[in-house]
Amino acid sequence: MCEVWNGKRYPDVFDVKLAVSRLVEHDDRYQLENAAKFRAVEQHVGTYDEFKAIVDGCHLKPLDRKEEIDSILKPNEHKWNSVAPPSPDNEEPLAESSNHADPNNLNQNLNIEKIKIYGDFERLWRKVKRDSKKSGDLLLNLEESSVFKENCEPLDEIIKRLDSFSSEEITESQTKIISILESISKSKRFSVSIAFMDNSAFKSASSLFSKLSHPDAKKIEKQFQ
User: Fold this and answer.
1) Helix 132-141, helix 155-163: angle, nearest 10
2) pTM of the model
């Protein structure tokens, strides 16, 4: 897709951003595979299949001890005949049933536990970003150091939502907001995201930092200029 401005055609910023992100991911994958090959050689694997398994699984990471594993252990547990009335022996409480349909209680005032994985954050953010209350609760309840470790998109929207907090909310949650901004600035994709951040988001970032009195605010602000 291209945009026309002053009679000239320019590539769509989102497409360019996506292309750069894919190039970075491709390079990261290459580095991981290369390291895995050396590791496999050092381990003196006995067969090619073992060698290939190590290389193919180079992107996998061990589960954190705090991560929920129920979805991994039981990925195909579905209620196939949800229309039929439950039998007396298998009847479940209504609350438990609603939790299966809405595990993060997005329809119940976003009473979520701390989000620890970027994929979960991205999925929930798309659902709640237009709701100021729920999007704010999502940001203030996530574990930013793990969520934004690899990616910090959509950076523009996150910055604008943080800036839209009231002065009282910013004062009350200042330590959390600083931690979010610091984690974002350390994200692996931060340099790409900040390079494509639009002017309105930069203005929101400047506005946000002007409201922060935390001693680390000035140091972190330099990363967003």
Assistant:
1) 100
2) 0.56
